[in-house]
Structure formats: C-alpha cells, structure tokens
C-alpha cells in the first residue's frame, strides 16, 4: 500500500539549515571556526600610555637649536593683486566670484585651443546653424547621474553663448573621452538650435 507521511510533530526537531558533519562547509562554520575572544578593554583604561612601541632610524630624541643668525622676512611671490594679504575663509567664495573664475578659465583655454589647432573665431552654441560651426565651452551633465553619451551637454562661454547649455549628439565621433568640467572646442551643426551634432572634438 502507499506510505503516508507522518503528520506528528517530532519531540526534538532539527533545524533545517544544520550542516552535516560530513559536509566540508562545517569546518568553516562560525561555531567551529571562530575562537573564543575576550572582550577588549576600554581605551581610557589602556596601559603604557605615551610609550614608544616602534621607531625607525638611529637618531633618538634629536634636539634643535638656532644658530643665532638674522631672521628672514617672507616676500610675496606674485603681485599683491594675485596674492592673499589678509585672512581668507576657504570654501566660502561667492557664487559670482566662482562664475568669474570659471569664465576666465574658459577664455584662457579657448585661446590656447584656437592657437594650437589654428581655429577661426568661435560661434554661439545656441543659434541655429545649417553649416558646421566651431563653439567653445565646458562639458556638463544634464542629470545627477554619471556622464555618458546621452547625458552630455555643452555649457557655452559667456561672451558668445551667454553661458547657455545645449545637448550634444556624439554619434558621429569615432571615439571620445570626456569628463564634467572639461574645456573643449567642438565643431558641428545645430540645425534647430536645440541639439549640437558634433563632428570634431578639440581638447587640450
């Protein structure tokens, strides 16, 4: 006849995830592998406070003394207009000052790109152009995610593009490597004024 499964509850139930003694994983289980560790002492109750436990070199406890010469006076390396002459709070710059520095950086590197590649004057990245034009700006991302071929935008320079942003179509480039904030000069067409189809990339 057919054997029916017993429906009674066993007196000593075994856990379902108990490792067999023949299983090789039992040797590395927490019960068999972890040693009995004593609790660590508190940091305030440590012994040997201030004691040197390791040293490097043969000189121990060197003493320094002055030779009695004349004192030196520091001098500014650059002009006072380009140096800090008073207290300065780091990371407390005004947004307008940061923008001025970024615009100056784009213009400086744009001039270097124009001289190096022999480019003509840059055009606006926002105006529709049926013919290929060369624009200047820095690479940005249209979202908070990672920069990729679909999320790349160009933040134009202030003089010609008024700092406007235009999405980039990089499908015609054989290979490229971009990062956010990179100053580049791009050659391409912008037939609608809403997307720049890039055909050449000029980078520093």
Automatic annotation (TrEMBL):
This is DPOA2 polymerase. Keywords: Nucleus. It is found in: Nucleus. The keyword rRNA-binding does not apply. Residues 1-44 are annotated as: Disordered. GO terms for biological process: DNA replication initiation. It comes from the Eukaryota. Residues 99-203 form the DNA polymerase alpha subunit B OB domain. InterPro entries: DNA_pol_alpha_bsu, OB_DPOA2. Its main location: nucleus. Residues 1-11, 18-41 have a biased composition (Polar residues). Pfam families: OB_DPOA2 (PF22062). GO terms for cellular component: alpha DNA polymerase:primase complex.
